Amino acid sequence: MKKDSPGAKVIYARYFLPTLTDLAMRNRELSRLRAQWIARARGEVLEIGIGSGLNLPYYSSEVRHIYGIDPSAELQRLARKRLHSVAVPVDFLLQSAGQPVPLPEESIDTVVVTWALCSIEDPARALLQARRVLKPAGQLIFIEHGRAPEAGVRRWQSRLTPAWKHIAGGCHLDRKVDDLIAGAGFQIAELSTSYLSGPRLLTFMYRGIANRGPSAPVDCGEAAGRRPG
Ligand SMILES: C[S@@+](CC[C@H](N)C(=O)[O-])C[C@H]1O[C@@H](n2cnc3c(N)ncnc32)[C@H](O)[C@@H]1O
Question: Is 76 in the pocket of ligand 1 (CB under 6 A)?
Answer without folding.
Answer: no
